[in-house]
Amino acid sequence: MIKLLKNLTFYKWIVLAVFGLVFIQSMADLYLPTLMSDIIDKGVVLGDKPYIWKIGGFMLLIAAIGMLASAAASYFSSKAAMGLGRDLRRKVFTHVENFSLQEFDQIGTASLITRTTNDITQIQQVVIMMLRMVVSAPIMFVGGVIMAVSKDAKLSLVIVAIIPILVGTILLIMRKGIPLFKLVQKRLDQLNLVLRENLTGIRVIRAFNQENQEQVRLQKANKDITEVSIKVNKVMAAMMPVMMLVMNLTIVAIIWFGGIRIDNGSMHIGDLMAFIQYVMQIMFALVMASMMFVMVPRAAVSAKRINEVLEMKPTLINEGKETANKERGTLEFENVTFHYPGAEEPALADISFKAQPGEVTAIIGGTGAGKTTLVNLIPRFYDTTSGVVRINGVNVKEAAHEEVRSKIGFVPQKALLFSGTIAENIRFGKEDATQEEIEHAAKIAQAEEFINKMENRYDSMISQGGSNVSGGQKQRLSIARALVRKPDLYIFDDSFSALDYKTDAKLRHALIDETQNSTVIIVAQRVSSVMDADRIIVLDKGKMVGMGTHKELLENNKVYREIVESQLSEEEIA
After folding, report:
1. Among 205, 495, 555, 574, which is most buried by a count of CB atoms within 10 Å?
2. How far apart are CA 478 and CA 517, in angstroms?
3. DSSP sequence for 503-544
4. Residues 285 and 342 in one domain
């Protein structure tokens, strides 16, 4: 928690202003009961109306000063807390951007969303309260005790007797509540995970008539968090009634013993009323402190979760510098082996090949052969366990992430579009792309035809995740996004799977001229998509079991021939 609060140093002047304003407010609140005591003892009892008007007017002025100070303190404390939340979200987001896929797998997307939203909101709320209470509560407590003792020292023994009971109650409730707060955040993560899977996978759920099963899963996650939330709220709800009961019993005791002292002539009526006000201020200070003690443990849990993200060191350290390109458009794998964390067997083992500009290198193999894993090593989404990946003759580990990825046009296996216009989605590949470049990329990607049929053409809106376009259209827009970049290296990770054979053939033909100065890597399931490649790499269980042209592999490679025979007829093979 303290680590995160250090970020408030940026708002130190605002924080100091809050402390100053809260001090003024607290002093005003402490002064008012004394003025009220004077009005009663010197004005009401003696019938001195001018004195009543004089002190009453002064009370209004003090109350107004306190009110203005309180309003200003609320404004500035909110400004500091909201600013801290904004800074933390930006810090977390920037840090997460440097994570490899390994860190995302480790924490989980749902948990990262919860930590960036709900957990930081918890920090904001407790900071607003702390900025007000960290000054106000001690001043009100200490000042209230001093003023109460000054009014009647013997009657103050009631306060001495009651404070241990209040403190004990607060500590007991905190002891019960803190473990439950941790559990609430974990259950919230689980609920977010189930919700996210249901919303993103709604088509699959409906296709398999799994709505009832998913409802049961959501109800369980919902019930789990509800049960824990009820428990924690029961514990916390007990605090206020207990505090109010103790406060009311204390006031009854003060009135009882104070009445006796007034009857004996040891105390004035005004002093008793002021004493009651000071006791209420003392109790209120303890209530405020208890509220802070309730919120701080929950915020501490949230702070710990945020710090876990900020302290997690990315496995892919971006320490590389810009390097002079030895070559242009080359890709080389040299004895590359890769293990997923915790896996017993390597996902890739001893992979070696070199691809040159103007060449098309295709990667084919069965499901789980390691095709996507191989291409994920090129833009350094993961780091090799051993061996070297070179782009333009430079080891990707020795170059900056930005430099490596700026040379790659990547089309992922699952086409992903962002909410915005078609032009904005294509321009994602190159921020300063002209309209002419965008239209050219769309034409090569075979997207021009369906774009022109839309009402607003390139200004047509794409909904979140591209849900208002078909799978094939999403793939073509993803390909256009890569083409507009004009990189040294193109990676098409099974990017033609949703295209019909005619569009697939037209696209591959158009790519020949467009990519003649670049290296092209194609991952494909269809043999028809790789038959014309200059080099075909055959993967089987993470190992490279063959490399050559379609004709060479058909004659010499058993695995490749089995793939071909499973897809093509004898006439097509011949």
Report:
1. 495
2. 21
3. HHHHHHHHHHHHTTTSEEEEE-S-GGGTTT-SEEEEEETTEE
4. no
Domain end point (choices 281, 311, 341): 311
What b/e sequence results for 209-221 when a residue is b if at least 16 CB atoms lie within 10 Å of its CB, and e otherwise?
A: eeeeebeeeeeeb
357 & 480 share domain: no
Q: Which residue has the tokens 């080891």?
A: 395
CB-based contacts of 557, cutoff 8 Å, min separation 6: 538, 545, 546, 548
Whether residues 22 and 134 share a domain: the answer is yes
For 190-244, how does the pLDDT look when each residue is reduced to its tens digit (9 = 90+)? 887 788 788 777 878 888 787 888 888 888 888 888 888 888 888 777 777 877 7
Shared domain for 155 and 215, answered yes or no, is yes
Domain range holding 235? 2-311
List the CATH number of the domain containing 64: 1.20.1560.10
Q: For residue 453, how far is the Cα from the chain centroid?
A: 38
CATH of residue 471: 3.40.50.300
Distance, in Å, from the CA atom of 569 to the CA atom of 574, rounded to the nearest integer, reads 9
Q: Are residues 473 and 529 in the same domain?
A: no
For the chain, how far is it from start to end, CA to CA, in angstroms?
70
Tokens matching residue 557: 């490679």
288's CB contacts (< 8 A; 6+ apart) are 133, 136, 137, 140
Tokens at 56, concatenated: 């009453």
Cβ–Cβ < 8 Å for 236, 188: no
Tell whether 548 and 571 lie within a shared domain. Answer: yes
